[in-house]
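Onboarding guide, step 5: your first structure request.
Type a short instruction followed by the sequence, for example:

Predict the 3D structure of this protein.
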Amino acid sequence: MQKQIIGLLLVVAAATGVYFYFVNSRTCDKPPQSPTNQALIIGKWKTAVIEPAIDSAEGTYLYNFLNSGKMLRSTNDTTKPDTIFYNWNQTAASILMKLGEDSIEKEFVITKLNTDTLQWQTPTKVMVTLLKLRDK
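The system replies with structure tokens like these:
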């Protein structure tokens, strides 16, 4: 009788382990984007929130993502923009960016992307939220 109870407990423990394995494998860190969402990044964006907060004069930028793999970044419409090259990494839901041809690429993890909000985490763990600018 004791062997039957121990056997039953082992079967229940194994079934519980299998259940939690499959439940966690479905909900673990999967990229929030689908391939079609890559097109949502194209257009003009403005910095809305930077967390943790840094000097506000340093963190306010306008971004213009182009289809060509270039992003133009400026502090306002009248200044000459910096050209930043970007490459979409679909498997990691991230963007690889570099300032100029000879600089080192840095990976920015996309945490949110929809029609009006783009949020990424920098390599230094700063969370940047951008809002889409609408054409007037």
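Each response can be followed by summary notes, for example: The chain has a mean pLDDT of 79.
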